[in-house]
């Protein structure tokens, strides 16, 4: 009996491993939510936990982390990008890029924008003439 009690002590005897107080705060941050039923809170926590497990398992199985026996951010962002079920997470789990690459992209966008403006002006001149 002592071993069973020891086995159930700590976080293992809790039905949900996510902190309910934090989930309550997140739920209350929605203007439509006025009060939160304890059962609704628990079920939301459990559903979130199961979803995170599913996302992690799927990403691990379909990612490159399996080779290293690890789950990486890249695996998660690849899942969000490639799998239709998880595409709603694409903005939350964007692909990582180097800052230098990002700055080059911004510079290119800026130049493209300036080029487009110049082209518009030329077209207007032609239309008038």
Report the uncertain regions.
Answer: 1-13
How far from one another are the termini? 96 Å
CATH topology of the domain at 36-117: Histone, subunit A
N-to-C SSE string, H for helix and E for strand:
HHHHHH
The largest pleated sheet is described as: none
Gross morphology: flat
Number-wise, the strands total: 0
The proportion of strand residues reads: under 5%
The radius of gyration over CA amounts to 25 Å
* CATH-level-2 architecture of the domain at 36-117: Orthogonal Bundle
Structural class: mainly alpha
What is the name of the CATH superfamily of the domain at 36-117?
Histone, subunit A
Overall residue-averaged pLDDT value: 79
Q: Roughly how much helix do the residues carry, as a percent range?
A: 55-70%
């Amino acid at each position: 009996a002592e071993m069973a009690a020891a086995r159930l002590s700590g976080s293992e005897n809790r039905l949900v491993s996510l902190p309910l107080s934090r989930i309550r705060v997140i739920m209350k941050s929605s203007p439509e939510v006025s009060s939160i039923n304890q059962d609704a809170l628990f079920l939301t926590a459990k559903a979130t936990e199961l979803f995170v497990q599913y996302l992690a398992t799927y990403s691990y199985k379909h990612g490159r982390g399996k080779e290293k026996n690890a789950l990486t951010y890249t695996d998660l962002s690849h899942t969000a990008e490639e799998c239709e079920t998880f595409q709603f997470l694409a903005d939350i789990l964007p692909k990582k890029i180097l800052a230098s690459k990002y700055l080059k992209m911004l510079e290119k966008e800026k130049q493209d924008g300036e080029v487009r403006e110049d082209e518009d002006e030329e077209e207007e001149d032609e239309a008038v003439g």
